[in-house]
Structures are given as structure tokens and as C-alpha cells.
């Protein structure tokens, strides 16, 4: 089993960690790592934080070095997009080349979503890659007025970094509070107050109807008719899994590559990280997570499975965000209809649990990392809702 050829498509966090895990666990067969970005694998969380602030550059966000990858004896193909998968012949199509494999790991992540009707104007930015972050950082240096469309984690972090730099920033979101989907209404409302106190202008419960400009973006008209003059428009409305290269492959794709509990999409074909939609053994349903921790946990599980020790992806999802000088953390899968019960609520810290329909779904923390770790451990036991008194 150890000498099988493993091809990994997607050379970022999940792909790299899979390769490292395979070698650590003794896989001695050939490994090919294919990535469409030109850079060696790098970390994305700092892109909206220290990279925008000018505190971190490419070397600071690198996840590995050329020397470390060489030591892993990886056939590395960077700047090379996979554009097809032939499962019958067990080959990945890369340019004019066909890369054969015995086992395939799909780690192609997700791409920042762009509204279809958005005009192509200078001053409009997405944020997913190091190149995106470098472009936005350069634009920030010109002291622009900034409008951020989307008040999710990435949008809120961009607004936080912009305020740290003293920029005039407005966040537009249809939801009534920032990060409502990720943090729920209660912590979302608290983070909204924190953002407002930091000087972020908030246009919640609205969306952008029209973007104006000839060559550059000049203004955005909101759905309530307000016109916001701006120099930059940052789009932070979520991400879409990178699966078009799998069209016609025979794999099931439905907002991600559909996998079983072991992240297997077909015999000898696995998906890891943001691109994977898998049946979580604890939740007993299909989920997809876009967070740093799941990407690493998936990689570890698939590396173990490929080296003869099958491991299911059963960890409780976990995401963190650093913004406005605060650390926000979520464990589990919040549901829109959850009831939220605060466990700790002080001027500095907040911890809450949430649930509905008989089961606790999640836990939230503001500036309370230890408490969140404990709550995440408890969630693994699928506690009932309402919670039992301690
Ligand atoms: C700005 C930003 C901030 C974030 N902050 C946090 C945070 O604070 N906390 C947190 O938990 N998570 C955060 N995340 C999410 C986290 O970074 C992702 O969950 C993680 O990067 C997922 O890793 P991945 O390897 O699955 O996918 P990706 O990192 O998306 O990597 C996929 C790779 O595959 C490549 N690829 C795509 N298609 C092809 C193809 N056809 N052929 C070859 N290569 C291809 C892509 O270009 C990319 O290099 C953040 C993400 C962003 C963008």
C-alpha cells in the first residue's frame, strides 16, 4: 500500500498537510502535488489581518519552504491548474500533461464569490489569495474611502484592518448584525457594537443595488436608495468550492465534492478542506466547512486512511476570527433557529452555548479561548438541549 502513487490537487493548507501527513506516517510511494498558484503553500488567515496591516509579508505567511518540500520528495507542480479528471484511466489533466495516480486527494479549496452583475472596475477587490491581499494592501496605502460588501468573518476582518489604518470604512450587509450566520444573533450583535465603537459605519439590512464608475469604482447605491461615494469596494460575500475542473468526472458535486465519513468521494479518491462536503459521523448529515482547523484535520484523517489506518472526519468544527482587538471563536455548527444561552457575560468576555430541537449545536466565545476549548470537547459528546445544569 505504501508505494502507491498519490496525486494531491490543490497546494495550499489541506493539500500540503496531506502530503506532510503521508510522509510522516510512512508513505514511501511517489507523491505529486499540483497547485495553480505560483507561490509555495501559504496561510490565508493572516491575509485579512496582518498582511493588510502591513505587518506580514509573503515570507511570514509561508506554510513551508522549498527545502522542506524537497526533503519530502514531492513532485511539485506549481502554477499548474488541473482541468480535468479521468477516473477510468486514473489520471488528472494538467495543461497538456496527464498525471497518473493510484490515489487522488482533491484539495482545491474555494474561491471568493463575485456577484454576477458586478461591473469590472478598478478599485473593486476580492480577498482570497496572497496576490489579492497585496493588491488591497497597496490600495489601502492611498488612504481611500472603503465600502465592504458583506459583513461575514472576512468582511469584518477587512473592516477591522481598515479602521486600524485609520481608513473611512462602511460595511453593507443584508443581515441585521455582522457575522450573523457564523456567530448567531447574540454574539453577532455584540461584535456589531464593537465594530461601530471602532468607527466602522454600518449599513445593515441593506444591499448594494448599483455600482457606479467609468474606469474606477466611484460610488455604490444601496437598496434603500442611499448613495455611498467610495474609492474601494471590497467584496466579502463568501466563497464557492473550486470544483469546475471535476465537471464530467463522474464524481458527485453539490456545493463541494460529496464524500462519506472518511472523506472518500469514490474508491481511492478523497476530498479535504474547504472543497469537501462530507457526512459528519457525529452530526449524521452532510456538511462543508470553510475553516483552517478542519482543513488540517481532514488532511490528517486522509493521510491516516491512505497509510492503512482508516480515520473518519469526526472533529467538532472550529473557527476563530481576530478583529477589533478581540478574539472570537465558534465550535460546532450554529443553526439560525438556535436558542442562545450565555454562560459568561462580562464587559470583556462572553461565552454562550446554543442549540435547538433537543441537541446543543454550538458554543461561542469572545476573548475566552480556554472556555471555548472546554465547550468544544463537551460538544463532541453531543449534549442535549436545553443543557443540563452543572
Ligand atoms: C482572507 C481569509 C481569512 C481567513 N481567516 C480565517 C480565520 O481567521 N480562521 C479560520 O478558521 N479560517 C480562516 N480562513 C479560512 C481558511 O484559510 C481556509 O479554510 C483554508 O485556507 C482552507 O484550506 P484549503 O487548502 O482547503 O483551501 P484553499 O486554501 O482555498 O486552497 C486551495 C488551493 O487549491 C488551488 N486550486 C484551486 N483549483 C485548482 C485546480 N483546478 N488545480 C490546481 N490547484 C487548484 C487554489 O488556488 C489554492 O491554492 C480564512 C480565509 C481567507 C481567504
Number of helices: 9
Class from secondary-structure proportions: alpha/beta
Question: What's the count of strands?
Answer: 27
CATH class designation of the largest domain: Alpha Beta
State Rg: 22 Å
EC number: 1.18.1.3
Domain Reductase C-terminal: 318-383
Protein name: 3-phenylpropionate/trans-cinnamate dioxygenase ferredoxin reductase subunit
Keywords: Dioxygenase, FAD, Flavoprotein, Oxidoreductase
Explain this structure:
With 390 residues, the protein is α/β, with parallel strands linked by helices. The protein folds into three domains: 6-111 and 239-306, FAD/NAD(P)-binding domain, CATH 3.50.50; 114-235, 3-Layer(bba) Sandwich (FAD/NAD(P)-binding domain); 325-379, no CATH class. It contains nine helices and 27 strands. It has helices at 13-24, 50-53, 58-61, 66-71, 130-140, 153-164, 180-197, 292-306, 369-379; strands spanning 6-9, 31-35, 74-78, 82-86, 91-94, 97-100, 103-106, 110-112, 124-126, 145-149, 168-173, 201-204, 208-212, 219-222, 227-229, 232-235, 239-241, 257-259, 264-266, 269-271, 276-280, 285-287, 318-323, 326-332, 339-345, 350-356, 359-366. A hairpin with a 6-residue loop joins β13 (208-212) and β14 (219-222). Residues 9-15, 34-37, 44-45, 47-48, 81-82, 107-110, 127-128, 154, 242, 245, 273-274, 290-293, 295, 319-321 line the site of flavin-adenine dinucleotide (FAD). It is an enzyme of class 1 (oxidoreductase). One of its GO terms (cellular component) is cytoplasm. Its EC number is 1.18.1.3. One of its GO terms (molecular function) is dioxygenase activity.
